[in-house]
């Protein structure tokens, strides 16, 4: 991917300054990732905060991801819960992952399962895989082959989620 020209950057900044929440989110994410412009964590934080304040659930999710990646974990769970409450399934999935991992909150597999169920109800297939994995660990050894068959079926359905379309028209991806 090429870097943005000064004219392109000015256009994106102008759109973000005019209050476009999606523009603010993508500009902040670009500053965080450094793919199209030089990385700048201060500007990334500024634009992601503004976008999340605009109420967009994906912006809250991306702000939570940014804060987690930069070690500022105090607000991560609250931002993910807010985004999941607004119907953004990747946020519910990420919430479950945080409860499973137990790095920024005490490990709680029951809360992780609840979050993954929430994500599945919102259409998130990888969350369904995590639910099956949790079920595998909970069932007696004799019943595990049946659960593994379910995992294979879900994995086949989920495979299309992990293929990227090289003709995807989105500028920065999802």
From TrEMBL:
Organism encoding this protein: Methylobacterium durans
Cross-referenced InterPro entries: Sel1-like (IPR006597), Sel1_AlgK (IPR050767), TPR-like_helical_dom_sf (IPR011990)
PANTHER family referenced in this protein's UniProt entry, alphabetically: SEL-1-LIKE PROTEIN, SEL1 REPEAT FAMILY PROTEIN
Coiled coil region boundaries: none
Name this polypeptide is given: Sel1 repeat family protein
Pfam families: Sel1 (PF08238)
SUPFAM superfamilies: HCP-like
